[in-house]
Amino acid sequence: MSDITVAAIPFFAVSMALEAYVLYRSPTAYTAADTLTSLSGGVGSVLMTVLTQPVRFAIFTMLYSHRIADLGTGLLGAIALLFAEDFCFYAYHRTCHSTRLFWAVHQVHHSSESYNLSTALRQSWTTHFVGMLFWFPLPVLGFRPEHVVLASSISLLYQYVLHTGTVRKLGPIEWLMNTPSHHRVHHGSNKQYLDRNHGGIFILWDRLFGTFEPEVAPPVYGLTKPVGSFNPVYVQLCEFQKIFWDVVESRSLASGFHAVFRSPSYQGPAPDIAP
Fold first, then answer.
1. Is residue 186 packed enough to be buried (19+ CB in 10 Å), middle (13-18) or exposed (0-12)?
2. What is the dihedral of CA 28, 156, 83, 176, to 10 degrees?
3. Can you list the alpha helix ranges (DSSP code H) found in 112-270?
4. Average confidence (pLDDT) over 51-56
5. Per-residue pLDDT tens over the stretch 171-201
């Protein structure tokens, strides 16, 4: 988490308190166990960022030294970076929903059956280790490493305010920008909402690549197969545990590979069929 995100911690606290007041006695109100699990994700994410940010920045710097262009620090370069970073996020986010290893990282963010601002903080502790490679093209293209980190932080801050049911649809803005309505769809476990609306700041990529879905029916939040626990460590690692045992029980290298890299719906090796 960069300085800009750390500086926003008071905003997180105040905005969650205000939303909790608005939602008091609502079916979507904050509950202690769920909120604490979400906050634990946020705290763990901060700690993992402290550990991994120097490595990430060093890799960005090395890649920048081999850049194929120099896009500068002007307004046009900043706008280009905003869109380029958002496309990298879209690619990462969509991969999380289509590949089992990345879903193991990301499922924690979808595990809450509530949808409020605290849900935004239910971040994975492991995303820093597998997700950064999706941003490697940016310094190669000529975006300065510190600007890439800043753009990523701005995206995270923007996405925080999307996690609320108190803001309804926003009219023409919905055509270009990701909004609370679009992101509620993303968190819905309704069949028509699964694996839709992967954008960060913009909804543009979803419209271009066929993953957009408007909010029509009320979303049912959470996973299609609930975790069934508020234990923060279990919530973070349960899908990795399933992958591990599927690999152990695999009868070939191919089935072991499938256990890690097939879609999140993969159920492990098929049982032996008696002759």
1. buried
2. 20
3. 117-120, 127-130, 137-141, 145-160, 180-187, 204-209, 232-248, 253-261
4. 91
5. 999 999 999 999 999 999 999 999 999 999 9
List b or e across 250-262, with b for residues whose CB sees 16 or more CB atoms inside 10 angstroms: beeeebbebbbeb
pLDDT for the residue numbered 72? 76
Q: How far is CA 106 from CA 11, 46, 198, 230, in A?
A: 24, 16, 12, 16
Residue 86's H or E segment, with its range, is helix 75-96
Q: Which residues contact 88 (CB under 8 A, 6 or more apart)?
A: 134, 135, 137, 138
Q: pTM, whole model, 2 decimals?
A: 0.92
Positive or negative, the CA dihedral 130, 91, 223, 5 is positive
pLDDT of 270 above 80: no
Considering Cα of 145, then 148, then 150, then 156, what sign does the dihedral take? negative
- Distance between CA atoms of 35 and 121, rounded to whole angstroms? 9
For residues 199 and 178, is the Cβ–Cβ distance under 8 A? yes
Q: What is the pLDDT of residues 231-259, one digit of tens each?
A: 999 999 999 999 999 999 988 898 889 88
